[in-house]
Amino acid sequence: MKRPKTTFRAMIPTLITLLFLVSACSSSGANPPSTLTPILRATQAHPASTTTADVCPTSIGNRNCVTPRILRLAYGVQALTDEGYTGKGQTIIDIVSYGSPTLQIDMDVFDQQFHLPPITIQVIAPLGTAPKDPKNKDMPGWAIETELDVEIMHAIAPDAHIIVMTSPVDETEGTIGLPEFLQLEQYAVAHHLGQIFSQSYVASEVTLADSAGKQLVQKYTDFYKQITTQQGYTIVNGSGDHGATDWTNIALTRLSPKAIVNFPADEPWVTAVGGTSLLHTNNTFTENAWSGSGGGTSSFFTEPDFQKSLPTSMQSLLNGRRGIPDIAGDANPNTTMVDYIDGQWTEVGGTSASTPLMAGIIAIANQMAGHPLGFINPGIYKLAATQNTAQAYRDIINGSNAFAQGNIHIAGFRAQAGWDAVTGWGSPQASQFIPALIAALK
């Protein structure tokens, strides 16, 4: 499943307590799914009609609980919503394994609770579907991932159309499930389904280092380069949820003792989204780096042109390699937006949460621009070098993605002023970020 720590896998341990939870998070010693792993805070079901749009269900019990409106305020989206920029006319495509059997039912409750416009989620399975299997421990986790993605997208861009494309194969680690995901993306492009891909899945570069893995990575690279630079597609992908490390084997039993990054977040044609911890008091917001945020330098890809403008100190860190992430958003399961999943209110984290947040912002940006922005990475870095940086981004300067578990201790990277290998340029402040990005891409 999706790999970010709080994403699908990290979420799992708590989820298992609630539902049947899929894989357990790495910190619990279990084997989380291989895609982004949403982390879940368990709560009890709560009727949707008992709270207002600005108040979390009482069952959450989190004083820092984030509603859709608070999330929009935190990232400068609410001002655009008030002006009618809601992602109308845009389509976001979510790529997952299996999907969720309760997606539409839960979505209806979520919308009613927070006074969001009702939406019918389109689910497409061109490769077929997998029958429900109680022995498949990853199916419940993918259901959580699917609903997390869709609810955050809808909270940010409430008028955007959302298509969930499901694979009947469980994406885990190495090449497993990745060929099917590529087929889904190719199908979406061939059938002109939308212009934004939101992807929370990852596989560590270590598990793709053999000849089969490298061949598959090249296929993805060629496809991504074509659709982003020639066909106006934007691809956002979570950076991962194990901080500066991740799995080194298919069985998900060994974490790398050295800093590594994940595919496809490492792709230069992908906008890699890291994770933060969002705190708020009376609509005043601060963010720190989330320790699970994947980030570092790629062993697969050389430094892209858009990163060559980074200062000398960062060039020394990159050493001619692609650095990730490019940007970040709330991923800490203790600070993320409340979700309604399988009939229960809960909180799910990981870069599986920050990725759909960014996808929603891009949907609004495409609406404002009047055309798909396509490959946005050059604009992200060009914008950061201008005087608009302070208004367009919330620079994250505290925290790191250091990892310590058992005998594995990795220093990782620290957040600092400007770009860093934990949160990229920081979190976008949409009311300033979007118009500045549009201008930077002209």
What can you see in these coordinates?
This protein has 442 residues and is of the alpha/beta class. It has twelve helices and 19 strands. It is 30% helix and 19% strand. Strands 2, 3, 4, 5, 7, 9, 10 and 13 form an eight-stranded mixed β-sheet that branches.
What order do the helices and strands come in, and which of them pair?
Blueprint: H1 8-18, E1 39-41, H2 68-74, H3 78-82, E2 91-97, H4 103-113, E3 122-124, H5 139-156, E4 161-167, H6 178-190, E5 196-199, E6 203-204, H7 211-229, E7 234-238, E8 262-263, E9 271-281, E10 284-289, E11 296-302, H8 312-318, E12 321-324, E13 327-330, E14 338-341, E15 344-349, H9 351-369, H10 377-384, H11 389-392, E16 393-394, E17 403-405, E18 408-410, E19 427-428, H12 430-440
Parallel strand pairs: 2-4, 2-5, 3-4, 5-7, 7-9, 9-13
Antiparallel strand pairs: 1-15, 6-8, 9-10, 11-12, 14-15, 16-19, 17-18
Helix pairs in contact: 1-5, 4-5, 5-9, 6-7, 9-12, 10-12
Mean pLDDT, nearest integer?
88
Could you describe the largest sheet, including whether it forms a barrel? Answer: 8 strands, mixed
Poorly predicted spans: 1-35, 41-51
Binned strand content:
15-25%
Q: Briefly note the structural class of the backbone.
A: alpha/beta
Question: Roughly how many Å apart are the termini?
Answer: 37 Å
Shape: globular
Count of helical regions: 12
Taking all Cα atoms into account, the compactness measure Rg is 19 Å
Kindly state the number of beta strands: 19
| Helix-residue proportion | 25-40%
